[in-house]
Amino acid sequence: MKSGQKLESLNLSEKAHALRNESLYREAASNYLNAILIDRNNPESYFWLGICCKNLKQYQKAINYFEKATTLKDDYFDAFFEMGICYQIEGKNCGAIKSFVQAIQINPDSPEVILQLGITHELCEEYDLALMIYQKLIENSPEFIKAYEQKSSLLMKMNQYKDALVILNKLLKISPDYYSTFAGIGICFEKLGKISQAKRYYRKFLTYQPLSEQNKFISYRLEKLRKISKFDNKILKCI
Question: What domain range is 23 assigned to?
Fold first, then answer.
């Protein structure tokens, strides 16, 4: 079950799976609580109890347990990282930034935690700082696809479609089979008024990603562009 998705919105199979997972996490949480009663100084028990709470969407409880784990073990990278994610979900971006920075100090070579730091700055609308972090990630980890995705997405949010196209084309070169890039390129071309190029990339995306969650959105945009093209052709014939 996706974050924020309500149980009643799921079909019977998805609902059964979600309830089974919830039952397992509650059982695991009970076991870790018992372990803590036996040994209150084991950071691993607090960490895994935090993971259970996170998966049960009890984010503030998870933060408390991750914090306890880092108190007992001040170089606990995974606990700082997961605590940052929970702070981020709760909209407590200052706490998230602090947690991610502490994780980076422990392991400066983890691209995922650096990415999450950039995303948190983006959530704070500190776009220049976020772009700088994404660019640094691209330079230091050129195979890390998520950095290209996040930077191009932010550039599009800022209406900088030409710059976003540059990043998406770089992503296409390093990962030609990452077909969702076609959707982003199509949107950039559409926003730049290059309709034929936009339609070509939308068709490419739909060819390679027929079951994607983006399918309806891109299909709608493609159909919209087709109607615009037909309308323009009718006008040209009347001139």
Answer: 17-108
